[in-house]
């Protein structure tokens, strides 16, 4: 599998009047290969959103560099790279440019000079992928948060991107909206093998990823599979995150003297563990 | 805000709804001049007839048109009385003290009121049967020649369409912040004027802060989606000028001809 | 202050062609001192109900009673609205959007001064509250717009509490916060509820928060209240919840799986992880005792 995106020793600080400048991102390196789903987690203010802005040239690193499809990101290839990278932001209202659903999906296509007939086809196709094809002429204020985010995803998909970045795309949604968006992403992954980076503090979202990148104070604190990261236990709690539900319960059960084999990430694992450790003797 | 019905787009599937927005814009623009051709009972009747004809064709309920007139009703009545009292032509119809009403004044008052009413109603047909975004598209394309003299037509049209898109969002936001401040004891609806003006500050500051935040987010989102000005951009919305549009304009010109013919009589 | 809604109905844009019915026949009572959760999916009418607790909306039918204050649909201009508002504080969703003053101190003082509290007293309250919401006093002289999102929210909450309300209404108070921030926020409200003897109304779609904190739950669906009861009772009724397009809290769903495994029901519906862990441990111990 080939590399899609890599950050190499990237450091970035926002310009500030104060004498002591804190790096928002401090010497961070990672790479993501085609077809992967990687989640960047961390508490609010840990630098995870700054990383998102560095990935597509909204910000340039002070030190280090960003590589996309084996090209270093620079002013010359910026627009070309952006057209291959879809991005969905936190606030569903503030990224809806078009007056209706179809206009919004077409926006990026218009910007990239896609011809009209092709555009119509792609808009239909992208909206079908997020199951919003029946809402072509709906105006944004008549849509739910989850629907707006799905339209935003369709807007990104219409460009046939290599990579989809979700920058806290579910954090302002109600549980229903959150499920809609996550189901859409999972289904897209199954159907097209799209590479996804999700920046989030929602653990149930993070657990779906293949790999987690755990940020703290602008630094990469840990990197690994969800199993490896959640094994950090209390450290996660100290750094502003929570444990997945099944894991929290496993720990509590063990504290109360219930024998269990391990820390379980999903409910199924925990039920199995309870069975094996307590009944199947 | 829900009370503002005037000019709100009412979706439909009639001859008028289906017309190209450019045709409707040209039609409305021409109509503004044609109105001034009328100068006697017959020609004014033709104008009213044309208005009723468009109303039937667009299946817009008269109630919306009457609602559309409400905001200008005071102006309408005022001009009517102005002419009624101060035009001293023709036979004296009525006299009471210094108040004198002449036949000419009554006629002028009625004419001006009709002129005013058909103008308002015709322009409201434009906004009632055309979505704001279609109007924007129409304006953009009609003004395209101005690009040659460096008028930023595309940018203006984009600004207009984004403003339209954000009006409901900002309305909701205003309502929300107003209620939050009212819950904190701020009173925007009663009390002396000076107090009320002071009470606007807690509403305006958060609104500005939020509008700037939105603008910033939106700019970022647009940039990420590859927006870099009008150059090299294609259009998703295509307008199609059909026979029905040519027909409508020709019909209006015919009416204009008829008006010119009968205006002297 | 008891809160009582009697046959309340409400329509937006009433009397125009765009009239939209949002509430009908809403009828419930919230006794003083209760931690009341109101849950329902988006569009169920819970945010419209919320605005009736403070006369921000006036019912189109029926009557709202907040303590001795009454808002009747039949009255054109209800009296004493301002006085009533002083007793009910509302923390709206994303309350940080309501900040506007030059300093945190002035913003917190805004509410009390509007209600006629003297400057010194308002200042004293601000100084006391800033600590209660978990922020240092040094922040009082800063501009609210220089703070982080989480800090801004706490300042806004202090601004509502500064009116010394008897009832506090919370609309999705943890939206957008990270997990740690969410827990701290909810714990803070619970502490205030206990310490200040407040009547707390939590409007939310988080079943987890309703299960953990509320004494009583009202479920809203399609513009009316459809179910009311203690959390254990509400969450035991899966069929009803499903009908109202709600999912029981995760903890309750998991308990079911455990019950299937055990082949029998646990002695009670558990509402927190701690409680469930303890109950499972007890049942297993008992079982081991019988087996051994």
From TrEMBL, chain B:
Signal peptide: none annotated. Pfam families: CbiQ. Keywords: Cell membrane, Membrane, Transmembrane, Transmembrane helix, Transport. GO terms for cellular component: plasma membrane. GO terms for molecular function: transmembrane transporter activity. Its main location: membrane. It is found in: Cell membrane. It is a multi-pass membrane protein. Forms a stable energy-coupling factor (ECF) transporter complex composed of 2 membrane-embedded substrate-binding proteins (S component), 2 ATP-binding proteins (A component) and 2 transmembrane proteins (T component). Transmembrane (T) component of an energy-coupling factor (ECF) ABC-transporter complex. Unlike classic ABC transporters this ECF transporter provides the energy necessary to transport a number of different substrates. Belongs to the energy-coupling factor EcfT family. This is Energy-coupling factor transporter transmembrane protein EcfT. The lineage of its organism: Bacteria, Bacillati, Bacillota, Bacilli, Bacillales. The gene is ecfT.
Automatic annotation (TrEMBL), chain C:
It comes from the Bacteria. One of its GO terms (molecular function) is ATP hydrolysis activity. The gene is ecfA2. Coiled coil: none annotated. It is an enzyme of class 7 (translocase). SMART domains: AAA (SM00382). InterPro entries: AAA+_ATPase (IPR003593), ABC_transporter-like_ATP-bd (IPR003439), ABC_transporter-like_CS (IPR017871), ABC_transpr_CbiO/EcfA_su (IPR015856), ECF_ABC_transporter_ATP-bd (IPR050095), EcfA2 (IPR030946), P-loop_NTPase (IPR027417). Residues 3-247 form the ABC transporter domain. This is Energy-coupling factor transporter ATP-binding protein EcfA2. It is found in: Cell membrane.
